[in-house]
Design a protein that fits this description.
The protein has 155 residues and is α+β, with helices and mostly antiparallel strands. It has five helices and seven strands. The strands form three sheets. The protein has a three-stranded antiparallel β-sheet, covered by helices on one side.
Length: 155
C-alpha cells in the first residue's frame, strides 16, 4: 500500500496532515489491495502526479483484462474511451444517454454538458464544484455528471 501510494516518506504522518492528493492516493492504494470484483472511481486521478497516474492506469488495465467491473466517473473523455465499453450520461441527475462509449462521449462533447467559464470567460468542462472523497459513497448527486463506465469487457 505504501509503495504503491508513493507515500513512504509520510508513513508516520497524521492523516489530517496529508494533502487531498496524498489522501486520494492512499485511499486508492488501500482499495486496490482489497482485490474486489468492482472498482468505483469518482474523478480518481484529478490532480495526481504522473508516476501515480501511470501505476493507477495499470490497475485499470488489469481490471479490464480480468473482465472485472470498473465504474468510473470522469471528465477525462480519453480515459473513459480507453477503459469503458458503455457509458451513461447524466445531466442534473437525469439520464440523457446510455450505450456505446463512443456515441455517449460524442454526445457529451457535442452538448457541452458541464461547460462553464472561468473568471475570464474562457470555456471549461466541469461544474467547478469540489468532488467527494473517493472513500465516501453518498446519495448526493453533483450536477452535471459525466459518463459512467459499465462492466469492462461486456457488450
Amino acid at each position: 500500500i505504501v509503495g504503491f501510494s508513493g507515500l513512504k516518506d509520510y508513513i508516520h504522518a497524521s492523516l489530517r496532515t496529508l494533502s487531498t492528493g496524498m489522501r486520494q492516493r492512499l485511499a486508492f492504494s488501500i482499495t486496490k489491495e482489497a482485490d474486489s470484483e468492482i472498482l468505483i472511481l469518482d474523478e480518481m486521478l484529478v490532480g495526481s502526479d504522473v508516476g501515480f497516474e501511470e501505476r493507477a492506469l495499470k490497475v485499470f488495465e488489469e481490471y479490464r483484462k480480468q473482465n472485472r467491473t470498473l465504474i468510473m466517473v470522469s471528465h477525462n473523455m480519453e480515459m473513459v474511451k480507453r477503459f469503458c465499453d458503455k457509458a451513461l450520461l447524466l445531466d442534473k441527475g437525469n439520464q440523457v444517454a446510455f450505450g456505446h462509449v463512443e456515441e455517449v462521449v460524442n454526445m457529451y462533447l457535442k452538448r457541452g454538458i458541464g461547460r462553464a467559464t472561468d473568471g475570464r470567460g474562457i470555456p471549461r468542462l466541469g461544474s467547478g464544484l469540489p468532488s467527494v472523497a473517493p472513500s465516501d459513497i453518498s446519495s448526493s448527486v453533483a450536477s452535471p455528471r459525466p459518463p459512467l463506465c459499465s462492466e469492462a469487457g461486456s457488450q
